């Protein structure tokens, strides 16, 4: 029996980042599923970090333990380069891609310091999203499409993120309506 047949894999989570009207918001749902079973509906996958006193908001999709490992590494990179999220993210992506242990980690991150909004992947990518919206996870494409459609409305960043998450939760079986939101002033 193949490994994926014995262990069907963890699914769940939608994370979105929205920059609009002087605010940057990262929102995420709380669902964790194993195969077709919801294991937990209240996981907290959006976090606020303050390495060196500089606030950074992170959201993650994928393996929780892997994501925490990456967040710890990001914090260390930010402590070494305070206030330079993009530099720290590139350094983390290099390590993630090159390090024998790290390259096996299965997670994606959305990070912001209020100035930069970035998506980090295990493929070594540090992406600045177009249209001031980024999304990852099982329902990421649904949330991304919804948020992009909502960007031209009068809704603020948090309302766009919440509405996009609600739409994703209505479509994606691996996304729920238990949303955690963290925000920063855009710089």
Task: Reconstruct the topology from this structure.
Layout: H1 3-6, E1 10-11, E2 14-20, E3 23-28, E4 32-34, E5 37-40, E6 46-49, E7 56-62, H2 64-80, H3 85-98, E8 107-112, E9 117-120, E10 126-127, E11 133-137, H4 140-150, H5 157-171, E12 180-185
Antiparallel strand pairs: 1-4, 2-3, 2-11, 3-12, 4-5, 6-7, 7-8, 8-9, 9-10
3D structure, described in words:
- There is one protein chain.
- With 187 residues, the chain is of the alpha+beta class.
- 33% of the residues lie in helices and 30% in strands.
- It is built from 5 helices and 12 strands.
- The chain has helices spanning 3-6, 64-80, 85-98, 140-150, 157-171, and strands at 10-11, 14-20, 23-28, 32-34, 37-40, 46-49, 56-62, 107-112, 117-120, 126-127, 133-137, 180-185.
- The strands form 3 sheets. Strands 6-7-8-9-10 form a 5-stranded antiparallel beta sheet.
- A hairpin with a 4-residue loop joins β8 (107-112) and β9 (117-120).
- α2 crosses α3 and α4 (140-150) crosses α5.
- The longest helix is centred in the middle third of the chain and has 17 residues, at 64-80.
In short, what is this structure?
The protein has 187 residues and is of the alpha+beta class. The chain is 33% helix and 30% strand.
Keywords, please?
5-stranded antiparallel β-sheet; 4-stranded antiparallel β-sheet; globular; disordered N terminus
Strand order of the largest sheet: 6-7-8-9-10
Q: Taking all residues together, what is the mean pLDDT?
A: 90
Q: What's the alpha carbon Rg, rounded to whole Å?
A: 16 Å
**SSE run:** HEEEEEEEHHEEEEHHE
User: Rough shape?
Assistant: globular
Structural class: alpha+beta
Give me the number of helical elements.
5
Head-to-tail CA distance between termini: 52 Å
The total strand number stands at 12
Q: What kind of sheet is the major sheet?
A: 5 strands, antiparallel
């Amino acid at each position: 029996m193949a490994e994926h047949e014995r262990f069907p894999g963890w699914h769940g989570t939608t994370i979105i980042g929205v920059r609009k009207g002087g605010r940057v918001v990262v929102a995420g749902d709380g669902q964790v599923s194993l195969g077709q079973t919801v294991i937990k509906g209240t996981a907290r996958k959006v976090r606020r970090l303050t390495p060196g006193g500089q606030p950074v908001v992170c959201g993650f999709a994928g393996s929780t333990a892997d994501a925490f490992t990456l967040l710890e590494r990001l914090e260390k990179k930010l402590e070494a380069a305070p206030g330079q999220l993009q530099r720290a993210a590139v350094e983390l992506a290099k390590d993630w891609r090159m390090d024998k242990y790290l390259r096996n980690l299965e997670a994606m991150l959305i990070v912001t310091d209020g100035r930069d909004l970035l998506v980090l992947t295990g493929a070594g990518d540090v992406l600045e999203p177009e249209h001031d919206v980024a999304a990852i996870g099982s329902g990421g494409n649904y949330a991304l499409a919804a948020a992009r459609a909502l960007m031209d409305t009068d809704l603020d960043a948090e309302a766009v993120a919440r509405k996009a998450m609600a739409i994703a939760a209505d479509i994606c079986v691996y996304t729920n309506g238990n949303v955690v939101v963290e925000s920063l002033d855009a710089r």
